[in-house]
Amino acid sequence: MTLLQADNPTAQLVDGVMIYIFGLSLLLLLGITIVTIYFVVKYRRSKHPEPTSEVDHSIVLETLWTVLPTLIVLTMFWYGWTNYVGLTEVPEGAIEINATARMWSWQFEYPDGRRENRLYVPANTPVKVRLRSTDVIHSFFVPAFRIKKDMVPGLETYVWFQAPKAGSYDIFCTEYCGAGHADMVTTIEALSAEDYAAWQVADAPPEHRGLVVMREQGCTGCHSVDGTPGIGPSLFELAGAPRQVEIDGQITEISIDDDYLIRAIRAANDEVVQGYPAMMPSYDETSLNNDDLQALVNYMMGRPDTTTAPALDGARLVEINGCTGCHSTDGSSSIGPTFQGIGNRDITIIREGQELTRKADAEYLLRALVDPGIETVKGYPDIMPPSDYLSPEELDAVVDHLLQQ
Ligand code: CUA
Q1: Is the pLDDT reported for residue 365 higher than 70?
Q2: Is the CB of 184 inside a 6 Å radius of any atom of ligand 1?
Q3: How confident is the model at residue 70 (pLDDT cuts 50, 70, 90)?
Q4: Closest Cα to residue 339, out of 348, 354, 349, 327?
Q5: Of all residues in the chain, what percent carry a pLDDT higher than 90?
Q6: Least enclosed by CB within 10 Å: which of 50, 213, 267, 305?
Q7: What pLDDT is attached to residue 3?
Q8: Which of these, 242, 241, 237, lies nearest to 227 by C-alpha position?
Q9: Is the C-beta atom of 175 inside 6 A of ligand 1?
Q10: Nearest-atom index, ligand 1, CA of 137
Q11: Is 101 in the pocket of ligand 1 (CB under 6 A)?
């Protein structure tokens, strides 16, 4: 076994400094101990009843024992600093993933918008993880890669690493963050190139229908979707954007909305964006049906696709949003009440100091998710964070799921 893992770059950086400082300290400790013992034996009183010399100072020795240790400590600092800088320099081509910590769960958001409570990465590829906290200070710690960084609310930090081979690596929260701190554990799942490709395709969100239509109709030949100029105006960040358009020779300022986009497609040259030629073909219902037109408008306005979006899976939402970190699904006691049998169960809640018993129906469950501070279940602390990171549709899916438990 070699001391430094060449295929684990962040561990190599940290271990290099660790071995250097520890090794040098060990050498000095041994050296000083041996010299001390030697002097104790050699100058023991039975052999030298009288002091042998009366030297009170030595410029050479004093200079040496000041300068040498300073130089040694400076090499430790220099080596430590350069390797610390290496931990902040993300190699080019790194995959970027957003990590969110909240009491008491982890969530990872991938470039395609997918969210998971485990960090899936390809092995042997640098990965940059942007770290964010929504509530208190947490800390992201992966012992295998020697990376550890605090996650402070309002401050974005990052780490990077490269998994040396496929496998599972532990992630711990290493800053005490409340009752569920010890449960804030998850894993990095490093996958082989083939497994990672398969994971990316498996239940990946389907492509927006509007973008498909745009390509089928050839719109992207003249209009970019990323803001670069083309023959026609770019279709980048359109919602509400102001445009100078020419209507019957008059320049008018409009702001982009659904109606404008529909007019601009159905009767392309009635209103022409200033600075562009009036050469866009109009699309009537035979060339572009109303469903496709709506998908196209949704896409351009930055709205999700309503035609191909898969049904939301409440069970999955509960898992990837960390709910199960505090709520068991098997009836066992945890930080919060168990989800087992929660649907329409009679529960005793405390609201404004009053105890009352009611049914955990849809209305109650939704309120408990959105505004958990209003009432708490008797016997449990008032510590649940509001689920304000879920969309209304996601909240409905979670409530539906809970009602069936
Ligand atoms: Cu989060 Cu400790």
Answers
A1: yes
A2: yes
A3: very high
A4: 327
A5: 27
A6: 50
A7: 65
A8: 237
A9: yes
A10: 1
A11: yes
